[in-house]
Amino acid sequence: MAPHITDTPWNVTPLTERLGIHYPIIQGALGGFDTRPLAATVSDFGGLGSFGALGLAPDAIKAVIADIRALTSKPFAINLWVSTQDEGAFESGPEAFARSLRPLTPYVEELGGAPPAFKAFDGVSFEAQARVLLDAKVPVFSFIFGIPPREILNECRKQGIVTVGGATTPEEASALEQAGVDAIVASGFEAGGHRGSFLRPSEESLFGTFSLLPQIVDRVSIPVIAAGGIADSRGAAAALALGASAVQIGTAFLGSEQGGAAPVHRELILQGKAGRTALSTGFTGRLARAVQNQLFELVSSNEMVVLPYPLQRALVKNLTTLAEKAGRPELMQLWAGQSASLSRYPDARAFLDQLVADLALIAPAISVWSKAMRRGQS
Ligand SMILES: Cc1cc2nc3c(=O)[nH]c(=O)nc-3n(C[C@H](O)[C@H](O)[C@H](O)COP(=O)(O)O)c2cc1C
């Protein structure tokens, strides 16, 4: 019997309808990078662009939102970290700072820089950051490392702000759904950047995307976005077949000229030289995936006593900024996911054009097939 052909085009999913976007393609937040042009490019194309505002002060976030709105009239997401510091950050003193700086000092000096001075941590408040998102009525508020307080989620609902929470385990997905979040990012450990775990330590929450995604899809009734290791139409099609309502891509966009990464970082990704990545807490104090270069080995070694997040981040940033200026990628913190070598496109728009053209060949069949599967299960 001929397959039942549905009237719904492949690109229309519960999530695209909820967000008011044309394609189920999300540019994941790339915290620490200026992705204003990238976010606008992806949103203008019909996907969802994002901006990672994790360490920014409220005024700076306000300015970013205004800039993105000046660049695109389409929906976009602003992303925050619910948990902004680890235990001990406020108490950590100059001795601990000096001890953690010691292994980095020879490299800072070699690059002609001055080692950073100790500065007591004064923190950044998630609530104050979130206030800006609420006041600005951003279209989408995405977050990782926890669940925002109930009052914030309630206010999002009242303002019509769509909330999207990151999950690294099936249990985290259930917790997000129970809290009333609108959609979930199933974030596999192939992904570049941080593991945003919040129920158990990140080291105990290491699911691969293809295991995590269908488990979350089976567990929750809200749309699920697949993230981690997706860098072309093959990965995107596979994720859609596993029940994703959209795919979220980070590393492949980091290779684009709109993504805000340093030229040396982009080149590494685009030339297939970012193939060896691993997870470490040594760059920031929290577990994150980056290229396994000389700096990775140093900050992950026994020589380094890692400071609580975000103190370690500031410490390593000093060296990596110097290394970037000197064109020394082996001493830079180079975020990348496991599929970095699949990234080919220096232009985000060209990447999206190709992705959609390729998906249009296979995604309609996946859409028909997955609807038939769901009917079979019910
Ligand atoms: C450099 C970098 C920074 C990231 N920062 C954030 C962030 O601040 N918040 C967030 O939710 N996800 C963040 N991510 C995750 C991405 O949004 C996305 O989910 C992930 O990159 C998808 O996997 P991929 O790297 O294999 O494409 C970051 C990823 C990278 C590579």
What is the compact description of this entry?
It is built from 15 helices and eleven strands. It has helices at about 15-20, 35-45, 60-70, 95-100, 105-110, 125-135, 150-160, 170-180, 210-220, 235-240, 250-255, 265-270, 295-300, 310-325, 350-375, and strands at about 25, 50, 75-80, 140-145, 160-165, 185, 195, 225, 245-250, 275-280, 290. The strands form two sheets. An eight-stranded parallel sheet has the order 1-9-8-6-5-4-3-2. The chain has a three-stranded antiparallel sheet with strand order 7-11-10, covered by helices on one side.
CATH class of the largest domain: Alpha Beta
Computed structural class = alpha/beta
The radius of gyration is 20 Å
Bound molecules: flavin mononucleotide
User: How much helicity do the residues have?
Assistant: 40-55%
